[in-house]
Each structure stands twice: as C-alpha cells, then as structure tokens.
Amino acid sequence: MDPPFNEIYKTLLYKQITNTENNVPEIPFSFSVTAIVEEVELPVIDVSRLIDGAEKEREKCKEEIVRASKEWGFFQVVNHGISMDVLEKMRQEQIRVFRESFDNKSKSEKFSAGSYRWGSPSATCLRQLSWSEAFHVPMTDICDNKDFTTLSSTMEKFASESEELAYMLAEVLAEKSGRKTNFFRENCVRNTCYLRMNRYPPCPKPSEVYGLMPHTDSDFLTILYQDQVGGLQLIKDNKWIAVKPNPRALIINIGDLFQAWSNDMYKSVEHRVMTNPTVERFSTAYFLCPSYDAVIECSSDYPAYRNFSFREFRQQVQEDVKKLGFKVGLPRFLNHVY
Predict the structure, then answer these.
(1) What is the residue range of 149's domain?
(2) Number of domains forming the structure of the chain
(3) To pair with 223 at 20 to 30 A between CA atoms, which of 47, 148, 157, 252?
(4) In a domain, 334, yes or no
(5) Which of 42, 41, 49 is nearest to 81 (CA)?
(6) What 8-state DSSP symbol labels residue 91?
(7) Coiled-coil segments, which residues (predicted)?
(8) Most confident of the following: 34-43, 91-100, 115-124
C-alpha cells in the first residue's frame, strides 16, 4: 500500500549524508527547523453570518475575515455550509482509495495521468523530502467522470460546496481590498481549480523528514479539511507554531496570487506538515485557481509586484523546484521599478 519511501530514500535516511549536501543552494529561513512555541487554535469565524446575519453582523464577519487574512494568512470557518455527512464520506472514500496497492494507485485510471503523486524522488538532501502521497485532481476529472462511483459522487459534492464557499470568501476579500468581486466567478471556473487528497503515512524518521516541505500555496485561496491527528504548522512572528485541529472547522489560507493581487494586503504564509512515527494523517484540499492565461495585477498605484500570468508563475515555480529543490515564489515577481 505504501509508496517505496524506504527504498528510494534509503541513502538519505540511513546512511551518512555526504558532502554533496553542501552544494545545495542557500535555503529559505523557514527550512531551518526551529522550536515550536505552542499549539494554537487559528481564528475561528462563523461564516453563516454572511448569509443569514443582519447588516451589522455581516460587516463584523467580513472584518474578522480581513483581519485574519492580514495578520495570520490562515483562519478557520464554522457553519460553512458543507455538512459533516459530506465531510465524513469524503474522509472514508479517501481512506479507501489510499488503501489500494501502490501499483494500482500509481497506474490508476480513476483520474488523468499524473494525478497520483508521492514523495520527492528527486530529493538530494533530507530537507527536500516529503513523506506523503496524494491525488492532485483537476476539477474537470471530477465533473466529467461518467463512472458514478461513491468516490466520484462524494468528490463532486465536496468540490461543488467548497467552490461556493471559496467564492464567498474571495469576494469578501476582494470587496475589502477595493477590487472587483466578480473576478473569481469569471476567472476561477470549474476547469481551472483542483482537489487534492493527501495521506501522510507513519514515518520511521519523524524528526528528520517533512510530511510536506515548507511552502506557500500557488493559488488564490485554499480550503482544507483535515482529520484530528495534527501536524500542520505555520510561521507566525518568525516562529513555527502548530495548528490545533478543530473537528467542526475548515481551514482557509491565503495563496500567493491573493497576496500579489491585493498588493501585500493579505498574506500568503509559509506552512508545512510534520510526520508522525505511528499514526497516519489524511486531509483534503480545494484550490481556487484561475486559468493559466489570467493576469495577476496589483491593486495599487505603487504595485509591489509586476503583472504576471498564472502560467508564468507556475512555470517559474517548477523551474525553481527542479533547480533548487524548493519554491521561491513571489520574490521572483517583485516590481523593482518602485
């Protein structure tokens, strides 16, 4: 069932690291493991007020969303419109598909080629490893799937409800940053967004290997449904903090595109997933992405970033990961004119 982590990573995990590691380029601050200050609960926002609340309550809710997006880059939402029944079915179907043999998963015809991913086979040092597997599924794979299995129907339900939640939150953030609220429904449509199912198997070297490397998300918004195992950490005030799981909530985080589009008003915060020696962890994420041709323009007379297309951004990320072993992201697109 498990990917061949031990086989592929044997040299890095169980033998002395050679001097080749010294040839790896300078790495970001966040890759230097620092002590966890504490386990915290992210800001919790009841978003039912956006629909059912009086005007005063709606405005208060919007202010809470904006404040969390500025100060944390992450927050949690409750009464979000996605039923616990749908979430639990999503979790059970996810567990079932990951229980298939590695050979079946790697050759799966459930989704388009390349959807199944695992680890970091090209890693050259321990800090580049990701001890996890995932199905990274284009929304078109879900919508166009004529094989009406429990998995496909559950994914469709989860994705469609996540989509509406993402639109609602993105429109609040657009409104409060002075941008057009219709941008997302016009540019982030079904055939440009993704659903990702993650599994983090138990790891024999949890202190040395990440479940998911430190990174920021290359989208506008991410909606995450996670189990109660824990392991998600993010940077706050230049320190790594552990996120306390909340069984009632979905986690929302700002992506790189929203940070650029809002001219740094909202923050795309670096985060990672730690491994566990005995317990596996599952999560499902929905990514609100535009078309590759969509142009990201700063909302300012003095833009921090130059205009760039999503295609250009993705290509740069892929080049950096291939060359450096990690993503550089928005610093590549800083506007040096101002």
Answers:
(1) 5-299
(2) 1
(3) 148
(4) no
(5) 49
(6) H
(7) 44-71
(8) 91-100
Residue 140: pLDDT band by 50, 70, 90 thresholds? confident
* Residue matched to tokens 């929302």: 252
**Sole residue written with tokens 């094989």:** 147
The active-site residue out of 49, 96, 281, 306 is 281
Residue 134 lies in a domain: yes
- Residue pair 169/252 in contact (Cβ under 8 Å)? The answer is yes
CATH number of the structural domain spanning residue 112: 2.60.120.330
Q: Tokens at residue 206, please?
A: 């949890």
> How far is 231 from 224, CA to CA, in rounded Å?
13
Contacts of residue 122, defined as CB under 8 A and 6 or more positions apart, other chains included, come to 322
Question: Does some domain include residue 324?
Answer: no
Question: Is 272 marked active-site?
Answer: no
Instruction: Give all strands (DSSP E) within 165-236, no chain letters.
Output: 194-200, 210-215, 221-226, 232-236
Q: How far apart are CA 135 and CA 117, in angstroms?
A: 6
Give pLDDT tens digits for 12-69.
877 644 444 444 445 565 655 555 667 899 999 999 999 898 999 999 999 999 999 9
Determine, yes or no, domain membership for 323.
Answer: no
Q: Which tokens sit at 10? A: 């044997």
What are the DSSP calls for 56-123, one per residue? Answer: HHHHHHHHHHHHHHHHTSEEEEES-S--HHHHHHHHHHHHHHHTS-HHHHHT--SS-TT-EEES-TT-
